[in-house]
Amino acid sequence: MLCFFLWAHERSGGWWNYIVCNTFNEEQWIENFRMRQDTFNMICDALRPYIKRKDTSFRRCIPVEKRVAISLWTLATPCEYRTISHLFGISRSSICLILKEFCKIINKRLSKRYIYLPEGDELYDIMLNFEQKWGFPNCVGATDGCHIPIIAPKHDQTDYYNRKGWYSILLQAVVDSNYLFRDTCIGWPGRVHDARVLANSKLYNMGQEGKLFANHSRNISGVQVPAVILGDPVYPLLQWLMKPYAESANMTAEQKKK
């Protein structure tokens, strides 16, 4: 037993084991983990074959549920590793390893199951929902870019220094009428323009090759209008990508609204 205390500092996981697992209600799950408990359980079951570990002669393994909870808590809150270490009763180095593994497995095993461009009846439902909610017909999704903060890399720092004054990588995403992600492109340095990210994405290639929502045009006031994605003024105006008019100093307030 003495050897064990020399080898590792003892920690308590009581907060997770007794408070969260036994007392958290649905509202607390959503507030702290950004999802319902049944969604959490579904993720645990889906990842279990890939992240489950076995006990060793030195220590008991960290259960799948705890691994997923640690990862979600880290991603959903601004807490430092030090704080999360105290909450879950594991070391900061373990948190780092668990989080990296979680993100890697999610991306490899689950992303394509849930992030995909709609087809068939699902596509029609989304277009109908868009029109009912926002009044825009034949719209499949909306796209934009988002800067993800990063620590300045050792090499090519200027490429990652964005116009807002900090280091980042870019996420381009398409979301549907229910705010669900339908397509993502991530990894470009923060200095790169959103239009360039789009032009080098799989989404752009599909659109330019006529493979994006093909044969889903609709007659509106005598004009065949194709299914479109909405973007902001920085993007090019394309057959499958609709954007607003660029503002000018001569535009009236009423014209800007339109």
From TrEMBL:
UniProt-annotated location(s): Nucleus
Any Pfam family hit: DDE_Tnp_4
GO molecular function: hydrolase activity; metal ion binding; nuclease activity
Primary localization: nucleus
Keywords linked to the UniProt accession: Hydrolase, Metal-binding, Nuclease, Nucleus
Domain of life: Eukaryota
Cofactor: a divalent metal cation
Domain DDE Tnp4: 144-257
Ranges where the DUF8040 domain occurs: 25-106
Keyword Metal-binding attributed: yes
GO cellular component, one term: nucleus
Record-stated family: Belongs to the HARBI1 family.
Name of the molecule in the record: DDE Tnp4 domain-containing protein
Lineage: Eukaryota, Metazoa, Spiralia, Lophotrochozoa, Mollusca
